[in-house]
Design goal:
The protein is α+β, with helices and mostly antiparallel strands. It is built from 7 helices and 13 strands. It folds into 2 domains: 88 residues, Phage tail protein beta-alpha-beta fold; 114 residues. It has a 7-stranded mixed β-sheet, sandwiched between helices. Strands 2-6 form a two-stranded antiparallel ribbon. A hairpin with a 5-residue loop joins strand 9 and strand 10. Keywords: Cell outer membrane, Membrane, Transport. One of its GO terms (cellular component) is outer membrane.
Length: 229
């Protein structure tokens, strides 16, 4: 569940210190049309995940300052990703049939320690917590707008699990909603406190959904979001 962010409106979660190991999946998916210009790697990954429906978890330090080459034509998702990353040294690790991460070559070939593996598992699990809490909150607060805009969001979460600070990285298309979102997210209580190893802020990509109403219906029977005064 921690990796299925594309289905809940959180298309990508860029954790500042996350790298995982997993075997790559066979490239058996049907080909699809891509039209992604050469651009910053973060932006290219966003476009790629919007096209494929896959989710990406990647250390923000790995993508900073890197660029992706243009990708145009019909390719299977795995081949498309290889081409997109051709100008970078990064390697792909698939973590499920709907998600992948990127790692540096030295990380890909080195065996992780037990402590590092445990820390990574905790971070991956917390990604699911953030996903669930934010999806439920945005559906409850802005059911008529959820899944109908694209923006980035930074969150600082304190030891108790409360959002101490929230900052939008782009507009949702409505200046009033932008200001209201930052204000309302402040004090939001996550379903669980973050692991001590979690580097912050968390950077999330909130994207348009093909059926946002269905996403919100799926969380209607869960607990209401909580805020700390």
């Amino acid at each position: 569940m921690a990796w299925r962010m594309a289905r809940a409106g959180l298309l990508g979660l860029f954790l500042p210190a996350l790298a995982v190991r997993a075997e790559a999946l066979p490239d058996t998916a049907a080909s699809m049309q891509f039209d992604i210009p050469a651009q910053a790697l973060d932006a290219a990954l966003t476009a790629y995940t919007q096209t494929t429906g896959l989710a990406v978890l990647v250390a923000s330090g790995l993508t900073a300052g890197r660029r992706a080459v243009a990708l145009r034509g019909r390719y299977a998702p795995r081949e498309a990703l290889r081409r997109l990353l051709a100008a970078t040294p990064l390697e792909v690790r698939y973590t499920s049939d709907t998600a992948f991460t990127l790692v540096a070559p030295e990380t890909a070939t080195s065996a992780p320690s037990k402590a590092r593996t445990r820390a990574q598992a905790l971070l991956m699990a917390y990604a699911g917590t953030v996903q669930a809490t934010l999806t439920r909150t945005l559906c409850h607060w802005q059911a008529d707008a959820f899944g109908r805009y694209h923006t980035g969001l930074e969150l600082w979460i304190d030891r108790s699990g409360m959002v101490d600070r929230a900052r939008l990285l782009g507009s949702t298309g409505d200046a009033v909603r932008d200001a209201d979102m930052e204000r309302r997210l402040h004090g939001l209580v996550m379903d669980a406190p973050p692991p001590a190893e979690l580097a912050q802020p968390l950077t999330l990509l909130l994207t348009r959904q093909s059926d946002p109403a269905a996403v919100c219906r799926a969380v209607q029977r869960t607990a209401l979001p909580r805020w700390q005064p």
